[in-house]
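Weekly sync, protein design subgroup
Attendees: M.S., D.O., the rotation student, P.L. (late)

Item 1: inverse folding check
M.S. brought a backbone from last month's batch and wanted to see whether the design step gives back something sensible before we order anything. D.O. pointed out we never logged the input encoding, so this time it goes straight into the notes. Structure tokens as presented (696 positions):
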């Protein structure tokens, strides 16, 4: 009792003077207060106050160099939010929230209300701020923004947030709405400390406070914890409250709305709390379907591009400059199937299933409860879901695969332009040698550009388009224009020029070229058309991504940092469209195989030969023959049984011996046995003999 009273006095004084009680420089004062209890020296309360004020003044003046761990953790965490101004740490110290206490200066209090509103608006969607704390601050300090929040409910995106708003804005309605659910949970999980049977109409505020006070989550199942009323009631329990309550938030879920739940610190420490457990079952089904599609697409892309490399490498022996570019393009597409698409799935898995938690314990006095309790501040993900090495690994291969595709198409377009526009000076052997050197330089350039975020601080890998990891900072816009957009425009312009000159010179070549040169020119035109089809397919898969980017620029209700205009349905549609656009873009790595097969008969034949050889080595051809043989046997037996049934029904219907159909007529209605399968032929003959015997 003495310690609580002493700490109350110290806290009230420090709160009025805007002093940080738990500055580590003032740790000695806290030790003195504990010593007061042991010695029962109540007169030392004044000494405690003097020590706190003195040490805090020294810290502010810079005479004591002991670091403030809480301030350091806030600085490190706030450094990840670039939109906050440099004076943020000082401002949050002056506007530190202590449950149950208000600022003496109303003008400073209103400024702090504006600060916390701006802070919450810029951080809520990454899980760095909690709605329960934000509304408690608005309500405790009587902020003017509280009326607007209760009227508009800008963050009411889930059943949990609905109950949170109900508690903050209409507390009596909240208590009536959640009384039965909380009472059942308290009766079951209060450890015998709570026993009440009064009905909801007779409920009073004292009854509710007593019931919530003894609510415990130790033995609750996850089904009970998923009830939003129980989740919010645990915030009011003895083990909950400011700094001891965690909210899991995820706003980017394809084919699903926002996921938002709340758990007390005991549940967070005991159970594996994650976004996956919080989201509805329909969302988990949608994510599973997206993951399955990406895995199947990745397998198909990997198989087809390995087949392209095998066909051109082992069968055609790289005797054409365009084949060099096609093999290089296939290598880049192989990275998409082997690494990029599988990491899409792993990224979703880590984002949605990694354990969510809070920062390490601190010490914040909560006068509305029981003095000092372990208190924690928000943290996006405990032991972050996407580590730095993972982001670098995935981002490198994502950028590298896309750059290889764009740059290879650009070089191949330039090669065809020279072949079509300057046919007399185009030498195949020279072009082949130049293509190999160009592809080598291309690979070195791609390796350099893909690693830029690793040694340039102004750009970094981040999640863009829901699931893809690429360069995502503001400075990356210029980089994208240089390394992506400019080569892409050159590809389009060169192909338009290529199509024009191909049509223009076709008739001229036919009139002046010899037979051999005419054949060469025909091959060059065929290669040019194939390249144009490839560029067209690439552009078609890129169109959805371009549309999504344009929509994000002109649609205002999908931006998470503007919650007052945010529409959950529009954001869900946009996020889902982003994922679909990314999947469509990834399919570009699959279409080239079918383009080669439709435009090149030799490629198609060599591809089939390799497929048969691989299938034969794996035993797939033998398995296919067995399946085909079994199906033929079943079909023959079924046909014979049907014929025998018709024969029996005809005889039982009054037919005479002479009206019996002959063996020849039966055989005419039956399928012919397979000559390659003598067993089927034997079965057919035996069945026919049996029919004849039965008929006689």
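Designed sequence read out in the meeting:
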């Amino acid at each position: 009792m003495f310690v609580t009273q002493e700490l109350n006095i110290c806290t009230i004084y420090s709160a009025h003077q805007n002093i940080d009680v738990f500055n580590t420089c003032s740790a000695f004062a806290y030790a003195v207060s504990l010593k007061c209890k042991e010695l029962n020296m109540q007169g030392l309360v004044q000494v405690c106050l003097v020590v706190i004020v003195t040490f805090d003044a020294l810290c502010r003046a810079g005479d004591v160099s002991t670091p403030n761990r809480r301030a350091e953790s806030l600085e490190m965490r706030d450094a990840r939010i670039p939109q906050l101004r440099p004076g943020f740490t000082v401002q949050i110290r002056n506007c530190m929230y202590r449950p149950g206490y208000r600022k003496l200066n109303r003008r400073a209090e209103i400024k702090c209300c504006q600060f916390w509103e701006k802070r919450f608006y810029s951080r809520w969607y990454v899980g760095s701020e909690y709605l329960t704390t934000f509304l408690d601050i608005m309500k405790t300090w009587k902020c003017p923004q509280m009326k607007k929040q209760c009227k508009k409910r800008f963050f009411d995106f889930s059943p949990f947030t609905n109950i949170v708003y109900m508690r903050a804005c209409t507390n009596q309605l909240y208590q009536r709405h959640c009384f039965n659910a909380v009472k059942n949970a308290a009766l079951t999980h209060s450890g015998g400390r709570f026993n009440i049977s009064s009905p909801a109409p007779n409920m009073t505020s004292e009854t509710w406070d007593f019931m919530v006070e003894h609510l415990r989550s130790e033995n609750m199942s996850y089904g009970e914890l998923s009830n939003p009323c129980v989740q919010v009631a645990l915030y009011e329990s003895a083990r909950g409250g400011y700094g001891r309550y965690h909210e899991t938030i995820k706003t980017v879920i394809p084919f699903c709305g926002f996921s938002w739940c709340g758990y007390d610190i005991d549940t967070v420490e005991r159970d594996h709390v994650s976004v996956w457990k919080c989201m509805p079952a329909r969302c988990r089904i949608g994510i599973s379907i997206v993951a399955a599609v990406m895995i199947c697409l990745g397998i198909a892309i990997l198989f087809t591009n390995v087949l392209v490399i095998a066909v051109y490498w082992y069968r055609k022996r790289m005797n054409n400059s365009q084949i060099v570019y096609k093999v290089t393009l296939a290598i880049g597409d192989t990275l998409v199937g082997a690494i990029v698409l599988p990491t899409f799935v792993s990224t979703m898995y880590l984002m949605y299933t990694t354990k969510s938690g809070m920062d390490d314990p601190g010490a914040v006095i909560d006068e509305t409860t029981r003095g000092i309790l372990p208190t924690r501040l928000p943290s996006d993900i405990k032991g972050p879901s996407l580590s730095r090495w993972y982001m670098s690994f995935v981002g490198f291969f994502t950028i590298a695969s896309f750059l290889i595709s764009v740059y290879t198409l650009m070089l191949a377009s330039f090669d065809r332009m020279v072949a079509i526009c300057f046919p007399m000076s185009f030498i195949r052997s020279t072009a082949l040698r130049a293509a190999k050197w160009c592809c080598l330089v291309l690979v070195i350039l791609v390796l350099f550009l893909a690693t830029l975020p690793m040694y340039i601080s102004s750009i970094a890998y981040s999640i863009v388009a829901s699931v893809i990891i690429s360069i995502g900072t503001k400075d990356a816009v210029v980089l994208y224009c240089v390394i992506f957009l400019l080569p892409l425009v050159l590809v389009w312009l060169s192909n338009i020029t290529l199509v024009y000159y191909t049509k223009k010179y076709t008739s001229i070549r036919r009139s002046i070229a010899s037979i051999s040169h005419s054949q060469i020119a025909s091959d060059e035109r065929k290669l040019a058309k194939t390249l144009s089809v490839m560029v067209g397919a690439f552009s078609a898969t890129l169109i959805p991504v371009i549309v999504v980017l344009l929509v994000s620029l002109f649609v205002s209700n999908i931006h998470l940092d503007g919650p007052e205009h945010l529409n959950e349905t529009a954001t869900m549609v946009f996020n889902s469209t982003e994922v679909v656009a990314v999947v469509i873009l990834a399919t570009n790595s699959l279409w080239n195989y079918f383009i080669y097969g439709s435009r090149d008969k030799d490629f198609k034949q060599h591809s089939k030969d390799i497929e048969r050889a691989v299938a034969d080595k794996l035993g797939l051809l033998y398995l296919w023959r067995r399946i085909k043989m079994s199906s033929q046997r079943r079909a023959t037996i079924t046909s014979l049984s049907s014929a025998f049934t018709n024969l029996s029904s005809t005889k039982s219907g009054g037919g005479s011996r002479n009206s019996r159909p002959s063996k020849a007529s039966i055989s005419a209605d039956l399928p012919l046995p397979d000559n390659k399968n003598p067993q089927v032929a034997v079965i057919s003959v035996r069945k026919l003999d049996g029919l004849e015997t039965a008929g006689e």
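Discussion: The longest helix spans residues 515-554. The chain has 28 helices and six strands.
Action: P.L. to compare against the previous round before Friday.
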